[in-house]
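SEQUENCE-TO-STRUCTURE ENTRY
===========================
Question of interest: how does this chain fold, as expressed in backbone structure tokens?
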Amino acid sequence: MCGRYSLFDEQDNKEIGKILAEINRKYPTHPIRTGEIFPTNTVPVLTIDGKDLSPKPLVWGFPKFTGSGVIINARAETAEEKKTFRQSLFTNRCVVPSTGFYEWDEQKKKYLFRLPGEQTLYMAGLCKEYDGIRRYVILTTAANNSMKAIHNRMPVILPKDKMLLWATDTAAALDYLHNEMPELVHTG
């Protein structure tokens, strides 16, 4: 599960800086959250715009149909079968930029997970519009060896060279969901 992540605008992180600059230019009156990201925050998410990925302000979480609250994650193993996620998986995939994600162990100790040697971590997402508001969820999968000691789930991590393919090629995206995720490092 991925219940929070980070999107820090560090001066030397050119990728995040470029995304934030572009979204501020395109949507100057739309408040965007940075820092520690919580469900229901509005943040930059990369979606297809023509043939390229472009940041747009989206809200984290699909509304629950059984009451209040939001659904923030979709299991990669079952997204194709679930009514809530199926259409988005086939037609509305997105990329969630971050500087890492948080997870807690059984003792409630908080860890920040990142890619080794990278300042930016991209997660696979699904997006959909509800009542005129664009929303997204983060896809999760079984934890790999770098996560298992802390939690049994982790986000589907997208290498930079797979981001456009993830968003544009359904067959490649479905195939990627079965890949082993990259090893991560954590602080905490």
Summary: The helical segments are 14-26, 83-91, 163-168, 170-176. The mean pLDDT is 94. The first helix runs from residue 14 to 26.
